[in-house]
Amino acid sequence: MKKTMRIGTLSCIMMLTASMMLSACDTSTSSTGSQSTPAAAGDGNKQLATIKLVYPGSPQADEAKIEEAINQKLASTLNAKLDIMPIDWGQWENKINLMIASREPVDIIFTAQWNGHAINVSKGAFLPLNDDSLPKHGNLLKQYGKGITDSLDPIFLEGAKINGKNYGVPTNKELAAQGGVIYREDIAKELNLDMSKVKKIEDLEAVLSAVKEKKPELTPLFLRDGDNLNSHYFSQYDYLGDSTIPGVILKDDTSTKVVPKYELPRYKEIVNATRNLMKKGLVNKDAATTPLSGQDAMKAGNVFMITGSLKPGKDAEMASVIGLQGKLKQIDMTERTISTGETAGSMLGISSASADPAKAMQFINLLHTDKELNNLLNFGIEGTHYVKTSGDIIKAGPQYKGYSPGAAWQFGSQFLNYIWDNEDPKKWEQFRAFNKDAKKSPGLGFTFNAEPVKTEVAAAANIVKEFDPGLDTGSVEPDTVLPKYMEKLKASGQDKIIAEKQKQFDSYLSTKK
Predict the structure, then answer these.
(1) Are 156 and 148 in contact (CB under 8 A)?
(2) How does DSSP classify residue 61?
(3) The whole model's pTM is what?
(4) What radius of gyration do the chain's Cα atoms show?
(5) What is the 3-state secondary structure (H, E, C) of 186-233?
(6) 108 contacts 363 by C-beta, under 8 angstroms
């Protein structure tokens, strides 16, 4: 059975005892010890380094089988083996923060601008990947990431930099973002709902009310913290970096003035509209606290609609992952935009507590270049979890439910991914067209460096975590709670943060004239 997450420094102490070679628990940004474990029988005296991969997602029943298949390949190519360590979405933030604070000796961690990336960088959680002066390891990207730099659009790496350094390797995927909803098309047809009328947030109430009346067993609209009508992909906020740091501009506007998001008219419109839906019983009551992802909620079969950051074929892709082929449809509800947040919206960072950063970077590079490995991690074992129908087109295999992580957007290059038989075979051409004419945010290319105000940022982040889930999901009354939110943010040093963000942004813009 798969191991559960090892949190805390105990594992570090155990590993130190196990081998005199270890130097674990070193708090420097260089190697923190060895994670080498005895090689399998037949490997003689070789030691296989263990690469620990941590990402948000549901643990899979056949995870151990996938590890075994991957490790047969890695033993010969990297002299390493992989330990897949998923954390359920609902526990992700707390567990990853504890892991970082305790310097758990893991190697690769999923990270994103919308998920505290800049704050974690300021805490020293990740190694800089393009730093020639990095002690012991040097420029990891240059030494071991040629496949990445050869295949990834330069805008990804450039946009993901913080103070000139890359602390994560972006997934090679769609670059633009577009907010919208995914709904059960089969149920909409059954209820004779005209979904073509849904174009704006205010259009949702009529169809959701009809679902509630005619299908009371269903949750009309499933929302959660981070995936709701006020998420960055829906509201078009550009945080100019980490989304937990106050101060935004709008991706679909031209203004370069950084303001608190609650001062924007659309913020109040969205939180009030969401509160209205909640009060009418159209949103799940546990929206502010649910550990479920939207995908998992839809998979359960009792949800009509979820929100999402859309891309071409997102509905068909999700339907294949959760076993609802032909039953999902998406509605695009915002303009397509590109911001720095999209370039850094899905990355794999190398932990500063990694025992072997070189091996970690080599593995990330393989996810961008090795088609067999990429698809093995994403879809499982051919003939078991999926079956090829022709070329790169696949359908569910006999043990499909044993391994269906639905996390392809997190790992390496999506352009290496197989395509489900219910998806458009020209999916990747559609991705490129999707990126082509998207509106560019005035902040594209800029990332705020929080170091000068890191004390204020840490305080503000805790307040954001306290208030955003309730306000964004309609779980609390904006007229009552928002004034308290504003007061606490100001007391935390919000004005100082925004002034520093504006100063840096203005300096960046002056170089573009």
Answers:
(1) no
(2) T
(3) 0.74
(4) 23
(5) HHHHHCCCCHHHCCCHHHHHHHHHHHHHHCCCCEEEECECCECCCCHH
(6) yes
